[in-house]
Design a protein that fits this description.
Elements (H helix, E strand, L loop, with lengths): L1 H11 L24 E6 L4 E5 L5 E2 L4 H13 L20 H5 L10 H14 L3 H13 L5 E2 L1 H9 L2 H12 L7 H12 L1 E3 L1 H7 L19 H14 L5 H7 L4 E3 L4 E6 L3 E6 L10 H14 L5
Antiparallel strand pairs: 1-2, 1-8, 3-5, 4-5, 6-7, 7-8
Length: 302
């Protein structure tokens, strides 16, 4: 496994410098772009790393996965009455479909869907952002994980479009709590800082039929795990989901902080980090590294 990682790293490293960091979130605009790390966690709990795999970074939309799983544990199948399971085919922050589809977001990984899930967790937990933080701490085995307040506040200051999305859903009776309260929780989830190693461990249950590292704890049922992986495969990579499925063939979720998690079901979870993004908003080196991975292992879910 370590040899595999080293080969991928050496193959992709010459691309370092391609892309640009997310500058629409001011606090992320100053992140050093020339970083690159990979971590793998196999289904026995062994972690293998290369490069900047232990550097914490802002997980951004990767948090939507953990937010969803936390809600699934409490709402079960009833969750899908409020959010769909279809690809959107539109930008992740689009409001167009909400108007036509009566305030029901297409899936939990576009902003509208993640806001509905955050609203559900807001109803369930006294401090939902702490619930998500503690959840990822437990999954990753790292009690030091925290949100970067500067990043969270920066996102809240530029909340207008997300607020408009939430208020539109509220107009369709698909949003229960105060919009500003939910936005605070949502942005704190996005501002969580985790390393590749943290995320590979934290997402490992999705590669292991819902069981955490070494099968010690069941996080989701096998059916729920398949549902989440299906959503990741169809909707986890913004508008690059189809191309990612075509090139990589694995369930994955990206964030504009430069991270991508992906699952090789039955074998291992992987996280790649490099802050410079391609034109679709995904890590340029991350996509390249995962493309290299599936070329080397000759395996995809398809």
């Amino acid at each position: 496994m370590q040899s595999l990682l080293d080969n991928i790293y050496q193959e992709v490293f010459p691309m370092l410098g391609q892309g640009k960091v997310a500058d629409y979130i001011p606090a992320l605009a100053c992140v050093e772009p020339r970083q690159f790390g990979i971590a793998i966690c196999d289904n026995e709990g062994n972690v293998f790393t290369v490069g900047d795999a232990d550097v914490p970074f802002s997980i951004q939309s990767i948090s939507k996965v953990f937010n969803l799983v936390l809600a699934m544990n409490h709402y079960g199948e009833g969750l899908w009455d409020r959010v769909g399971c279809e690809p959107s085919g539109l930008p992740f922050n689009s409001l167009v479909q909400l108007e036509y589809e009566n305030g029901i977001p297409r899936n939990p990984f576009i902003n509208a869907g993640a806001l509905v899930i955050s609203d559900m967790n807001q109803s369930r937990f006294a401090s939902p952002h702490l619930a998500v933080r503690d959840f990822v701490r437990r999954l990753s085995g790292n009690p030091e994980i925290n949100a970067d307040r500067i990043v969270a506040d920066s996102e809240f200051e530029h909340r207008a479009r997300n607020a408009a999305t939430a208020y539109l859903m509220k107009a369709f009776n698909n949003f229960e709590n105060e919009v500003e309260d939910v936005l605070h929780s949502y942005f704190y989830n996005c501002a969580l800082e985790m390393s590749c190693a943290d995320l590979a461990r934290g997402a490992s249950f999705l590669a292991n039929r819902g069981y955490s590292q070494c099968g010690e704890e069941q996080i989701l049922s096998p059916k729920q795990t398949s549902q989440v992986n299906a959503l990741l495969a169809t909707s986890g990579m913004y508008n690059e989901a189809g191309s990612f499925a075509f090139q990589v063939g694995l369930p994955g979720k990206s964030g504009v902080g430069g991270g991508i998690i992906a699952m090789v079901p039955g074998r291992f979870s992987i996280c790649v980090f490099s802050p410079a993004l391609n034109h679709m908003g995904n890590s340029a080196l991350g996509v390249a590294a995962l493309t290299s991975l599936t070329k080397h292992i000759k395996w995809s879910v398809y």
